[in-house]
Specification:
The chain is of the alpha+beta class. It contains four helices and nine strands; from the N terminus they run αβαβββαββββαβ. It has a seven-stranded antiparallel sheet with strand order 2-3-4-8-7-6-5, with helices on both faces.
Amino acid sequence: MKWRIFLSALLLLGAGPVLAEKLAFDHRLSPELNQVLEAGDPAMVSFNNANPHYLVDVIAVRGASAKDWTEALVIIARSPGRKVASAESWMEELRRESQRRCKGTYTVLAQDSRSITFERQSTDCPPGYPPVGIYRVVQGKTSLFLLAAMAKDGISGSSREHWLALMESARLE
Protein backbone atom coordinates (compact mmCIF):
# COMPACT_ATOMS: atom_id res chain seq x y z
CA MET A 1 0.00 0.00 0.00
CA LYS A 2 2.72 2.50 0.99
CA TRP A 3 4.65 2.15 -2.23
CA ARG A 4 1.47 2.08 -4.31
CA ILE A 5 0.72 5.68 -3.30
CA PHE A 6 4.24 6.83 -4.10
CA LEU A 7 4.44 4.91 -7.36
CA SER A 8 1.05 6.25 -8.38
CA ALA A 9 2.33 9.76 -7.83
CA LEU A 10 5.40 9.14 -9.95
CA LEU A 11 3.41 7.40 -12.67
CA LEU A 12 0.98 10.29 -12.75
CA LEU A 13 3.85 12.63 -13.45
CA GLY A 14 4.61 10.63 -16.57
CA ALA A 15 0.96 10.37 -17.61
CA GLY A 16 -0.70 12.21 -20.43
CA PRO A 17 0.03 12.22 -24.11
CA VAL A 18 2.12 15.38 -23.99
CA LEU A 19 4.11 14.49 -20.88
CA ALA A 20 6.50 11.77 -22.08
CA GLU A 21 9.15 12.49 -19.43
CA LYS A 22 9.02 11.56 -15.77
CA LEU A 23 10.47 13.32 -12.73
CA ALA A 24 12.09 11.09 -10.12
CA PHE A 25 13.47 12.02 -6.71
CA ASP A 26 14.60 10.27 -3.53
CA HIS A 27 11.69 10.67 -1.10
CA ARG A 28 13.77 9.00 1.64
CA LEU A 29 15.85 12.17 1.96
CA SER A 30 12.92 13.74 3.80
CA PRO A 31 12.19 11.53 6.83
CA GLU A 32 8.89 13.37 7.32
CA LEU A 33 7.76 12.62 3.76
CA ASN A 34 9.07 9.07 3.96
CA GLN A 35 7.06 8.47 7.14
CA VAL A 36 3.84 9.63 5.45
CA LEU A 37 4.49 7.41 2.42
CA GLU A 38 5.36 4.43 4.66
CA ALA A 39 2.09 4.88 6.58
CA GLY A 40 0.17 4.57 3.29
CA ASP A 41 -2.79 6.74 4.33
CA PRO A 42 -4.58 7.65 1.07
CA ALA A 43 -6.06 10.79 2.68
CA MET A 44 -2.56 12.26 2.82
CA VAL A 45 -2.16 12.18 -0.98
CA SER A 46 -4.23 14.00 -3.59
CA PHE A 47 -3.94 13.62 -7.37
CA ASN A 48 -5.50 16.11 -9.76
CA ASN A 49 -5.30 15.05 -13.39
CA ALA A 50 -8.34 17.00 -14.59
CA ASN A 51 -6.10 18.90 -17.02
CA PRO A 52 -3.65 16.54 -18.79
CA HIS A 53 -1.39 19.52 -19.52
CA TYR A 54 -1.16 20.50 -15.81
CA LEU A 55 -1.00 17.53 -13.41
CA VAL A 56 -0.88 18.22 -9.65
CA ASP A 57 -0.03 15.92 -6.73
CA VAL A 58 -0.17 17.04 -3.09
CA ILE A 59 1.36 14.95 -0.32
CA ALA A 60 0.65 16.25 3.19
CA VAL A 61 3.62 15.90 5.50
CA ARG A 62 1.95 17.61 8.46
CA GLY A 63 -1.77 18.12 8.81
CA ALA A 64 -5.03 16.18 8.69
CA SER A 65 -5.00 15.37 4.96
CA ALA A 66 -3.81 16.44 1.52
CA LYS A 67 -6.71 18.91 1.47
CA ASP A 68 -6.07 20.21 5.02
CA TRP A 69 -2.29 20.34 5.34
CA THR A 70 0.15 22.38 7.38
CA GLU A 71 3.26 21.26 5.48
CA ALA A 72 3.17 19.55 2.10
CA LEU A 73 5.09 18.55 -0.97
CA VAL A 74 3.38 19.70 -4.16
CA ILE A 75 4.43 18.09 -7.43
CA ILE A 76 3.33 19.61 -10.72
CA ALA A 77 3.98 18.45 -14.28
CA ARG A 78 2.97 20.80 -17.06
CA SER A 79 3.35 21.30 -20.75
CA PRO A 80 5.47 24.30 -21.71
CA GLY A 81 3.63 27.18 -23.35
CA ARG A 82 4.31 30.59 -24.85
CA LYS A 83 4.34 32.34 -21.46
CA VAL A 84 6.07 29.58 -19.48
CA ALA A 85 8.58 27.61 -21.52
CA SER A 86 11.57 27.32 -19.15
CA ALA A 87 12.47 26.79 -15.52
CA GLU A 88 13.23 30.50 -15.12
CA SER A 89 9.97 31.63 -16.70
CA TRP A 90 8.01 29.35 -14.36
CA MET A 91 9.82 30.84 -11.38
CA GLU A 92 8.87 34.30 -12.64
CA GLU A 93 5.24 33.25 -13.03
CA LEU A 94 5.25 31.94 -9.44
CA ARG A 95 6.82 35.20 -8.25
CA ARG A 96 4.15 37.30 -9.95
CA GLU A 97 1.32 35.14 -8.60
CA SER A 98 2.64 35.16 -5.03
CA GLN A 99 3.31 38.93 -5.06
CA ARG A 100 -0.40 39.46 -5.76
CA ARG A 101 -1.22 37.64 -2.53
CA CYS A 102 1.52 38.96 -0.24
CA LYS A 103 4.91 40.64 -0.31
CA GLY A 104 7.87 38.32 -0.42
CA THR A 105 11.40 37.65 -1.46
CA TYR A 106 12.69 34.95 -3.78
CA THR A 107 16.22 33.66 -3.31
CA VAL A 108 17.85 31.46 -5.94
CA LEU A 109 19.68 28.64 -4.14
CA ALA A 110 20.98 26.67 -7.15
CA GLN A 111 20.69 26.91 -10.90
CA ASP A 112 21.92 25.14 -14.01
CA SER A 113 20.91 25.20 -17.66
CA ARG A 114 17.78 23.04 -17.10
CA SER A 115 16.72 23.67 -13.49
CA ILE A 116 16.42 26.24 -10.76
CA THR A 117 16.00 25.83 -7.00
CA PHE A 118 14.72 28.78 -5.01
CA GLU A 119 13.13 29.76 -1.74
CA ARG A 120 10.18 32.09 -1.12
CA GLN A 121 9.72 34.00 2.14
CA SER A 122 6.50 36.03 2.29
CA THR A 123 4.86 38.28 4.86
CA ASP A 124 1.30 39.48 5.50
CA CYS A 125 -0.21 36.58 3.57
CA PRO A 126 -3.93 35.84 3.59
CA PRO A 127 -5.09 32.92 5.73
CA GLY A 128 -4.26 29.55 4.21
CA TYR A 129 -1.48 30.85 1.94
CA PRO A 130 1.88 29.39 3.01
CA PRO A 131 4.38 32.15 3.82
CA VAL A 132 7.37 29.93 3.04
CA GLY A 133 8.22 27.60 0.20
CA ILE A 134 11.22 25.81 -1.25
CA TYR A 135 10.92 25.05 -4.97
CA ARG A 136 12.76 23.24 -7.72
CA VAL A 137 11.73 23.56 -11.36
CA VAL A 138 13.21 21.08 -13.83
CA GLN A 139 12.89 21.61 -17.57
CA GLY A 140 12.73 18.60 -19.83
CA LYS A 141 12.48 18.37 -23.58
CA THR A 142 8.68 18.22 -23.61
CA SER A 143 7.66 18.99 -20.00
CA LEU A 144 8.27 21.22 -17.00
CA PHE A 145 8.22 19.83 -13.47
CA LEU A 146 7.91 21.56 -10.13
CA LEU A 147 8.63 20.26 -6.65
CA ALA A 148 7.42 22.63 -3.93
CA ALA A 149 7.79 22.09 -0.20
CA MET A 150 5.50 24.56 1.55
CA ALA A 151 4.46 25.18 5.14
CA LYS A 152 1.75 27.38 6.56
CA ASP A 153 3.59 27.74 9.88
CA GLY A 154 7.22 27.79 8.73
CA ILE A 155 9.76 25.10 7.92
CA SER A 156 12.15 24.01 10.67
CA GLY A 157 15.89 24.07 10.02
CA SER A 158 16.14 20.28 9.83
CA SER A 159 13.11 20.01 7.54
CA ARG A 160 14.61 22.70 5.31
CA GLU A 161 17.81 20.67 4.95
CA HIS A 162 15.79 17.52 4.18
CA TRP A 163 13.71 19.33 1.56
CA LEU A 164 16.81 20.81 -0.07
CA ALA A 165 18.42 17.36 -0.28
CA LEU A 166 15.23 15.96 -1.84
CA MET A 167 15.12 18.83 -4.35
CA GLU A 168 18.75 18.21 -5.27
CA SER A 169 18.00 14.54 -5.95
CA ALA A 170 15.33 15.38 -8.56
CA ARG A 171 16.14 14.15 -12.04
CA LEU A 172 14.34 13.37 -15.30
CA GLU A 173 13.90 9.82 -16.52
